[in-house]
Design brief:
Length: 429
């Protein structure tokens, strides 16, 4: 549980702010950049192919880098081949395609508003990416026997104005609804904006919080929207109507009001309970003391919104939260670069690496829970940070004995005990 080093899966040539895993293709999509400042740091989306090495380790290949001009992507959402990217005060929608092409096939060209890159040389990550055909020619490490090349194409679809802060508009969070019928955004102006997808007809635009919105999530069936703001509030909405406000500290009488604020919220499934639903929130101290107070995770019933369990999660300020697809695990990242995995049922820490990154962890994403990608791991989670590094954190499957073997040894022990008693006390049986 102490401090140890996690090798980098990939290192980008710019700060990373978001990471997502496409469940259809297994592609890892990272995003970030240096923004509009003229420092020479690029802004891009990068597409990585993840490969399982043995049963527990991973490597990554950079397939494509899509330049986003002067705007860094600060947050991402994925929905059926569509990327919703938060760039300044806008939400940029792009469609991506992942396919293969025969060696002797015609090369795809570049169109206005789109980029195409063939993986003619499938570069190992960490060597940089120049994009386009020049980047593809920069390396020759593809086996001669390979007769197909990987191709990623990215095409711009539309943009919507997602934040109207007159001073510094910035989209802070974006989500697709679970059924992909809605696109939801929140920003520094405190407004929640909801668009029908894919038509992008605006459905709601309402003031949800005073000040910045930190996070939001939509429950299955689009029944409830939960939002978190810097105004100490965590609100549950039905449409654009406030249904209730959550108060986690009511179960913690020693904690005064407004000493903590909500930082993140996520809905999660309950393994082996089809109709059950949980909501997880993270609370961080509003002010930092010389002796830092702990942060907290709270688990709520996702339908009644009654608190079920609250547990401390260390004194490092939490910066990001993720929930695994099955709802079994929670992932936490901190402003000091540490990464942890918790068991959602008990809120107990299962995995922890202190200062795995050199600076704030900006996003986390669990790998899909099928063996082809996860390997012989109980959990595998990606983390990205401002230090440009992407890492993978794994929890190996715990060794277990077959039930027949356990029963066999139990039977042997019973027989041995009976024989011992018969030997010590003749006529026992």
């Amino acid at each position: 549980m102490g401090k140890r080093r996690v090798p980098d899966l990939y290192r980008a040539p710019f700060p990373l702010y978001s990471v997502k895993v496409d469940p259809r293709t297994g592609l890892v999509i990272t995003a970030g950049g240096g923004g509009a400042s003229k420092t020479g740091i690029k802004n891009a989306l990068q597409f990585l192919e993840l490969q399982l090495v043995g049963e527990h380790s991973y490597s990554a290949t950079l397939l494509h880098s899509h330049d986003t001009d002067t705007r860094a992507t600060m947050n991402l959402a994925l929905g059926d081949g569509v990327i919703a990217a938060g760039q300044d005060g806008t939400c940029c929608l792009m469609k991506f395609k992942h396919g293969s092409q025969k060696k002797d096939g015609k090369a795809a060209g570049k169109d206005a508003g789109s980029s195409v890159q063939k993986g003619n040389a499938r570069r190992r990550t960490g060597k940089g990416d120049k994009g386009g055909q020049d980047g593809a020619a920069a390396s020759g490490d593809m086996p001669d026997t390979k007769d197909e090349t990987v191709q990623i194409s990215v095409t711009g679809l539309a943009e919507v104005q997602s934040d109207l802060n007159p001073q510094d508009p910035l989209q802070k969070v974006v989500r697709f609804s679970p059924d992909l019928s809605l696109l939801l955004t929140g920003g520094t102006d405190g407004h929640i904006r909801v668009w029908e997808f894919p038509s992008l007809k605006k459905k709601f635009d309402f003031k949800a919080h005073e000040g910045e919105i930190e996070d939001l999530d939509m429950s299955p069936g689009n029944k409830h929207l939960v939002t978190v703001g810097r105004d100490f509030a965590c609100s549950v909405w039905s449409g654009n109507q406030l249904a209730m406000g959550l108060k986690w500290f009511e179960t913690m009488p020693h904690i005064a009001d407004k000493t903590y604020r909500y930082m993140a919220c996520r809905f999660g499934k309950v393994e082996d309970q089809k109709d059950a639903l949980r909501l997880y929130t993270v609370q961080i101290p509003h002010k930092r003391d010389r002796k830092p107070p702990p942060c907290f995770i709270t688990k709520w019933d996702g339908r009644s919104f009654l608190p079920m369990l609250t547990a401390p999660c260390g004194s490092e300020v939490i910066s990001s939260l993720a929930v695994s697809d099955s709802g079994t695990f929670l992932g936490l990242g901190t402003v000091t670069g540490s990464v942890a995995i918790y068991i959602s049922f008990s809120l107990q820490k299962l995995y922890y690496v202190q200062e795995s990154h050199g600076i704030v962890v900006t996003d986390l994403a669990f790998l899909p829970e099928h063996r082809q990608i996860r390997g012989n791991n109980e959990a595998a989670m990606l983390s990205v940070a401002v230090d440009s590094r992407c890492q993978v954190h794994t929890v190996a499957n715990r060794r277990s004995f077959p039930i027949w073997l356990v029963l066999f040894f139990c039977g042997v022990m019973v027989v041995a005990a009976v024989l011992l008693l018969q030997h010590l006390f003749p006529g026992f049986i």
